[in-house]
Amino acid sequence: MLAIAVHGGAGTLSRADLTHENEQAFRAGLDRALRAGYVALERDASSLDAVVAAVRVLEDDPLFNAGRGAVYAANGTIELDASLMEGAGLRAGAVAGVRHVRSPIELARLVLERSAHVMLAGQGAEEFALEQGMAPVPNSFFATEHRRLELERILHGEQPTGPESLMGTVGAVALDHLGNLAAATSTGGLTGKRWGRVGDSPIIGAGTYAANDACAVSATGHGEYFIRLAVAHEIASLMRHRGLDVRDAAGTVLGRVGDLGGYGGVIALARDGSIAMPFNSEGMLRGAMDSRGRFEIGLLGDDA
Questions:
Q1: What is the pLDDT of residue 166?
Q2: Which residue in 127, 190, 261, 297 is deepest, having the highest Cβ count within 10 Å?
Q3: Cα–Cα distance, 263 to 88 (Å, whole number)
Q4: What span, in angstroms and rounded, lies between the C-alpha atoms of 120 and 204?
Q5: Burial environment of residue 85 by CB neighbours within 10 A (0 to 12, 13 to 18, 19 or more)
Q6: Which domains does the chain have, with CATH numbers?
Q7: Is the pTM for the entire model greater than 0.85?
Q8: Is the dihedral of CA 54, 297, 226, 281 positive or negative?
């Protein structure tokens, strides 16, 4: 059984505001990411390889809030976070607050594979990237006019920091031919955030988690709420200890996020290949593909 799911963020995205051009562009980006990850799985690559391949596609797509196209902090800088985890050995790697790394998910993988640590942040993460041969890019590499205008509207009080600025965090979960699970998440965080702010995306157990005895999870949304509830790990815990299936577990935990006033969604993949993609916001960019013939891409709650 092979399976993969991806997301491109969750937030306020109404049908009225979704132009045909934007809808096609979002769907095309999700399609490329799904196929990049699934092709890796078909070639007997690991689930870790597959989630990195999928997330790399989305990091390079300026439509999404990760890598090029990431949002601005309030001081005009772009700070990036990412993490990944493999379900077989519970190995994990994460980076936070990097400004000159083209692919944060690739750096997170290097932390997993070539360091004794789980998370590196800021300057230390940047220096580690240089030591591993990753060529730095200027912070301006990630900038787009769309994101600059978004920040200006927030700084001028024309748009509040909130659900409408969440759209774009990316992630992937995968199940490979050996039955191993993996999860990965990458983001630029919240538009207008305090520089140095770290959300749930690089926090193992909050925004990213994978364990072969339960599921793989990547989250997107208002990270402060997902951290407080340890959302990704809690989904796995409900499956382990209460016997819930992945859909019920994911839905239950996301309900708790809503009870606290938080918005967002998750993609969750169980060891049997079952996929859940619940969200409590107007939209979540999402897609799923498996060896049973499933293929779907959705943007809003009324998508099939």
A1: 46
A2: 190
A3: 30
A4: 13
A5: buried
A6: 3-297 (3.60.20.30)
A7: yes
A8: positive
